[in-house]
Amino acid sequence: MSEHINEFSHFLRNKRNISENTSSAYISDIIAFYKYIQETYKKDILSVTKTMILTYMLDMQKKSKNAATISRSLSSIKSFYGFMEDRGDITKNPSNNIHAPRIEMKLPEYLSSEEIDKLLELPDINSAKGYRDKTMLELMYSTGIKVSELLDLKTGDYNPSSESLSINKKNNTRRVPVGSQAKLYLETYLSERRNALVNADTKDVMFVNLSGTHMSRQGFWKILRQYARGAGINRRITPQIIRNSFVVHLLQNGSDINTLQILFGQNSISAIQMYLKTQEKHTFEIYRKSHPRA
To answer: Is 0.70 surpassed by the pTM of this model?
Structure first.
């Protein structure tokens, strides 16, 4: 891998408000681009021209990459060359004035309130594993936090007096309220059930796997899929769908955008816009069912 890509990787890892997953995606995009440049043009990554970037985007289209993938790749390329320009390694950013393909806004997938209820009823709370699973699912739906945030939680991140969680991301911390149902299970889990699962190395970690070590995202995903099948949800389900359900159900019950931004951890209103589309669709469905001449 180019030393310049290594330096960019180091920069991203230390940059505020960029998650490890986002950083990894940027580097993966740049490595794929660099490989194309070497194979097609036999050029160094700092010798790239605007034409080369455009042909790379065309090549991605020929390989049936969707608009979102191409757009993200271009964003990574722009960030990389912006970093190189700021450092003085290049005098002009070759990605300037290159525009990403238009991405059609896709409605987020989410579960109905009835499906959520079925999902949350499944864990066997008589076992330590089942109680852990119940607590994780209740907490995720109650707060809308990401699966990475859920699995990074420490026992000290829960404040029982304010009934809230501290979500810590590098130099940024936000607090989110915990609903009454999730609070009930979380407090019992922490005081009575958790000790049966943890070991000396994970004594401060809120949720661990059955061997007492850190739970992976893949491990949580596997647990979620098992309960989804048991609940009769016969479609692909991911942690993001639980997060989507949190937002959509709040909107359906009258939550405002500013509140959602704070709870969801999104600074941009545009990040919430796709969820507003689901509410618009829901409103149209009610209209068509209710209006005598609809």
So the answer is: no
247 near 261, Cβ under 8 Å? Answer: no
Across the chain, mean pLDDT equals 86
Q: Which two tokens stand for residue 68?
A: 């979102």
What's the pLDDT band for 280 if we cut at 50, 70, 90?
low
Instruction: Looking at 63-208, list the stretches that DSSP marks H as alpha helix, in order from N- to C-terminal side.
Output: 67-87, 113-121, 128-143, 147-152, 180-188
Q: What is the pLDDT of residue 135?
A: 97
Over residues 116-122, mean pLDDT: 96
CA angle 197, 200, 206 (to 5 degrees): 50
CATH assignment of 3-87, given 1.10.3470, 3.30.230, 1.10.150, 1.25.40?
1.10.150
CA distance 114 to 3: 52
Q: Are 107 and 61 in contact (CB under 8 A)?
A: no
What is the second-level CATH architecture of the domain 113-288?
A: Orthogonal Bundle (1.10)
Phi, psi of 173, rounded to the nearest 5 degrees:
-130, 135
